[in-house]
Amino acid sequence: MIIKLDPENISSRDQIILIALDLFGQRGYSNVSIRQVCTQAKVNVAAVNYHFGSKDKLYIAVADYVSSQLMQHLNADIEAANAVLEDTNNQGAQALEVLLHIVENTVDLLVPDSEESERWARFITRFQLGEAVPDHALLKNPMLHIIAQLIGVIKNNNTDTLENAILAQTIMGQVLIFRVSRVSAMINLNIDGFGQAETEKIKHVIRQNIITILTLG
């Protein structure tokens, strides 16, 4: 579930973060000034300096906000994954189910039509395209490392191989394509949007793909 900040009951710091999230996503890091953020957030420049200190630190705060929302949504899955990885028996079937649950929950978060996830997608896509931005947690995406480790358990090999890392990227790419290439996806699928029925079908297909890749590949 996405935790939204209530615009009617919001601190000036959170208001700045939400406005900056939109502006950085729409225009890119280099084309957004502190003054533009302040104008839309209806605060003075001193407020940004007080809460963040600089444009770089404001950008990192926005990335941290998006990252915290993603991690909160997947918190139970992360705990389940860590339990599997710490188990000396390392059951492959259990690891597979945890991995599938992580992916399906990610689909539920990112694929259905949602104004909030669309804002995140714009922000994330900007720096994924190679825009020069400050270093932050979203660039490293800790979930990919967890998934790669689970793949190692499933395939009964070294959890830190390059192949497992590539497989993790490939698996999550199946989800992200429906968010970052949304218009093309709707045209090619001949649909008007991504509701519950479309989301469930996507989860079913991705689930079967993962099982095939990791158990038959």
Automatic annotation (TrEMBL):
Residues 33-52 bind DNA. It comes from Glaciecola petra. This is CerR family C-terminal domain-containing protein. Residues 10-70 form the HTH tetR-type domain. Keywords: DNA-binding. Signal peptide: none annotated. Gene3D superfamilies: Homeodomain-like, Tetracycline Repressor, domain 2. InterPro entries: DNA-bd_HTH_TetR-type_CS (IPR023772), Homeodomain-like_sf (IPR009057), HTH-type_Tx_Regulator (IPR050624), HTH_TetR (IPR001647), Tet_transcr_reg_TetR-rel_C_sf (IPR036271), Tscrpt_reg_YbiH_C (IPR015292).
